[in-house]
Write a structure and sequence with these properties.
Layout: H1 8-20, H2 24-37, H3 42-54, H4 58-71, H5 76-88, H6 92-105, H7 110-122, H8 126-139, H9 144-156, H10 160-173, H11 178-190, H12 194-207, H13 212-233
Helix pairs in contact: 1-2, 2-3, 3-4, 3-5, 4-5, 5-6, 6-7, 7-8, 7-9, 8-9, 9-10, 10-11, 11-12, 12-13
């Protein structure tokens, strides 16, 4: 496909292709070229911000997002970008503020509700987080991240039965995510179902060998609890 390299939109398309390949420096060159060609293009600034954020260069990322907002204060992607950077910096009050601004502009976005819910949960506002994550799922029932974090919030509230419902639904949409089975195993343990916990944790071990140490520790604790229960019965 021939693309006009003197078109800012073409530069953004090419840059996005490199971004998908995680070639962030090359992507940045094309986004910067787009800005040179059209200095008032808020979208190109936001895309540049995403690339800097992917490289953990938060200062440059935030500078790009702010430049985008200065050009277009209703550019919700830039507000989201600022919120996500603050979230990664564990500045949850700032993250919440900027994600709410993004939602005011785009109130039908399941991902935005999800990220706001994550920020609220990290900031110790579990019930508000639950509302946001539930709304994310209402908008898009196949949003796996929202369902996973809703389960995490329910676990923090010790509502293990409802967490189990979310996780069993999540297994159907994300059957190869080891982290889901790992959390599912812990919930089964809390509910006094060691056999199901063992099955879930073993599945997590198969799917996530990189997390083997953590999963094996959970399996070992499960076995210790079983042995302790057997001794009590004797």
């Amino acid at each position: 496909v021939d693309l006009d390299r003197n078109s800012p939109f073409s530069c953004c398309v090419i840059g996005n292709c490199f971004s998908l390949q995680k070639e962030h420096d090359t992507a940045l060159k094309f986004f910067q070229r787009a800005i040179q060609l059209q200095p008032d293009m808020a979208y190109a600034y936001t895309l540049s911000g995403h690339e800097h954020a992917a490289k953990d260069d938060f200062e440059k990322a935030m500078s790009c997002y702010r430049a985008a907002i200065k050009l277009d204060e209703r550019h919700y992607n830039a507000w989201y970008g600022l919120g996500s950077v603050y979230y990664r910096q564990e500045k949850y009050d700032f993250a919440e503020h900027h994600l709410r601004k993004a939602l005011q502009i785009n109130p039908c976005s399941s991902p935005l509700y999800c990220y706001l819910g994550m920020a609220l949960h990290a900031n110790g506002k579990a019930k508000q987080a639950l509302e946001m994550l539930s709304e994310a799922i209402t908008i898009d029932g196949k949003n796996p991240l929202a369902r996973f974090h809703k389960a995490q919030v329910l676990i923090s509230l010790e509502d293990y039965q409802r967490a189990l419902i979310e996780l069993t639904q999540l297994v159907e949409t994300a059957p190869k995510e080891g982290s889901v089975y790992f959390v599912l195993g812990k919930v089964y343990k809390k509910l006094g179902q060691p056999s199901n916990a063992m099955i879930a944790l073993t599945r997590a071990l198969d799917l996530s060998p990189k997390d083997a140490q953590q999963i094996k520790a959970a399996l070992l604790n499960l076995e210790k609890d079983d042995n302790a229960d057997e001794e009590e019965e004797l």
